[in-house]
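lol ok so funny story. i was supposed to be doing the assay writeup but got distracted and ended up predicting the structure for this chain instead. priorities right. anyway since i did it might as well share w the group, maybe its usefull for someone
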Amino acid sequence: MGQPTIKDVAKLAGVSISTVSRVMNNSKPVSPEAKQKVLDAINKLDFKPNELARSLVMRKSNLIGVIVQDIGIEYMAQLIRGIEEIGRLYKYDMLLTSSYGQEEQINNSIDFLATKQVEGLVIIAEDVSDETLLKLRETRIPFILLDKYHSFKTLHTVRINYETEQYRLVKHLFESGHKNVLFLNDSADNILNHAKKSGYEKACSELGKNIYYLECNGKTSNDGYEIGKEAIALCKENDISAVACCSDELAIGFIDYCTDNSINVPNDLSVAGFGDGSIASIYRPNLTTMAIPYYDIGAIAIRALIKRIRQEDDILTEDWIIDANLKLRESTKSLS
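and the output, tada:
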């Protein structure tokens, strides 16, 4: 015998299909006697409603679509955890797809998730085009975009202020007695790198310090290692005792270069990163860094999206700025 249907429930209870539907959805009053018959029939038949069919009728699937660039990227996994755990508190399940940074795949994922009757979309990407934004608006599905590298005047998000947080880290190094600080940044032309550079320069300007700045080919550990020779030469020439890096990976690669060239971190040179990925706390020396609260970003984003879905007060009338946390570890030391 196949799976029981709503018709089977109605037949066993001796009521109409519409009465069964009213009991299941609690949509209209049903007499206590009829309701009990329906509940008894559901229990006896072990009837489980077709959720997809119900969602088509009720226009409520309790599904959120999540499109990530690559689930293998550590910070995206933290964002997803925040989205999923808070979403479940509100009785929503997640449908997850990966775009791998390809615009066509993002658009395909939007189409796919729309066919699954998702009530909202979260897009986690490092770069989203205007064409994709237009497609999102055309679906008329409420959405939240978590994008590191863009700022949209009419599209609010949850983020940290990279300029402010880089400023805080560099200022801490100066206040710890370091007279000169070198900043190693990614050369890519985007809002994120401009903001971090601006934060570094603001700290130097405010405290009357010289600016020492180098751009790397990227922000990976390999890039940090490759810039090592040039950076160390600059440090020796200008009495630089601390290096701030735009990412943890870059900092770790640079520390590896220092180790290979008999430069002790932090006794000879303090080094700080940015991000606080899992490797930052297990690498030796443990890395001083600015910890980005990715879980909290995901949690606030899904809460804002659910409020939009339910047409409640929108909590993103402007960008929601979350503070990062300065993690002081072994890779830096105070000279004061």
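Residues 74-89 form the longest helix (16 residues). The chain has a mean pLDDT of 90.
back to the writeup now i swear
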